[in-house]
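This follows on from our talk about sequence and fold. Please put the record directly below this note.
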Amino acid sequence: MAATTIVPPSQTRSTRQLLWQWLIVLAPAAAIWFGHIPGLHAPQTHLLGVFVATIVALVAQPLPMGASALLAMTFLALAGVLPPAKVLSGFSNVTVWLIFTAFLFSRAFTATGFGIRVGYMFIRRFGRTPLTVGYSIAAADLVLAPFIPSDTARGGGVVFPIARSVATVFASEPGPTARRMGSFLVLVSFHATYNASAMFLTGMAANPLIAEFAMKIGHVDLTWMRWLSGAIVPGLLTFLIVPWLIFRWMRPEIEDTTPVRQMAHEELKRMGPLSREERSLVAIMIGVMAGWITSPLHGVSNTFVALAGLSAILLTRVLTWDDLLAERRAWDALIWFAPLVMMADQLNESGVVKVLSAKLFAVTAGMPWPTALMLLVAAYCYVHYSFASMTAHVTALYPGFLAAALATGAPPLAAALPLAYFSNLDAAMTHYGTGSAPVYFNAGYVRQSDWWRIGFRISLVNLVIWLGIGMLWWKVVGLW
């Protein structure tokens, strides 16, 4: 797959467009800064104004995300809203370093070629029909999800090239031949990616941030194993049902999958046996997984389990230090995640989240908590039509929605888990809702009307599975 040069939005948009974007960013922030919100004092409204400006900037992107976060962090200190030590406190947060380290793991999977190998192994073994080819690609995503915490890196960098290669084998290209196989594979691959992200604490960059919010607001400890235990049944049901539904709605014209199994066989033959680097990576990641699962027993935080794994990757020379320095997504995430975590923490500690959630969600007062929770989760899901980033959505809304859910009397885990899972599942509806969506959509196999129509249907299926069967499962296993 040819390398793609990412051009910052500021270099591709006209001066007039940038001015409008900055107006969109600064107008609501200024209104909050100079306005009056009942229950909040001036320092709280000033912090809220900067936070709102940062979130809007992450969506509108007049500057890259890291630059917007850096500007916000600097302004908070220069304006005296927070002392410098508080402004920089996000960089000492263990969640930020877990996210950073997990991004570096994804570099190891792509650099060694092991991620691509996993995909071809599933296709060669299980790709007997068009539907099982789809399941094979989805299964590869599921296996890689605990170790590659970016759906953009995993879906766009590993799974999409496999799906694209399979479509090419069947002479399925964008346009008249798209329905031969490409449309089906693109949709299955995309919907598998965010579902896999929902199933693991380390499946998406913002998931550890969600766990931190859950602890600070609801005193809920979402460990790696507790997250998975809640997701395993609804997640696997989604894994089984959604590809079958897409097969019904976007049925491929090709029936014989012999060519694609032959292609997978030839690709694996070309790759040869597992390299030393791949074998070392597999052993290290098994150890990291074991450390995450057993963290309640040994007491070592997930972050330092991950850092131990990263150290082992360097010691065994699976990657060099220069390789890690070249992983710009990790360093970019470190820069913009830390200020977001810091501001979210300060909004919570200063009582802003509590005040705003009480005002915004007063409509749920007096409702039975199961009814109120379902309404809140559905609203949380569909407001994602307004977001182009799952991280921005989580940072802006998860604390307030969780506080509102807890105020209805919902058990803490029953409130925290569905909102956590739908922080990933809300990507279903649009072609811009998460980083991997434009990669799949821009391939040209699926029309926007079909993408939105099928995405909305699947969002309803997700609500039924995760809020229906999921809630029952969480009760059975004692999560609430």
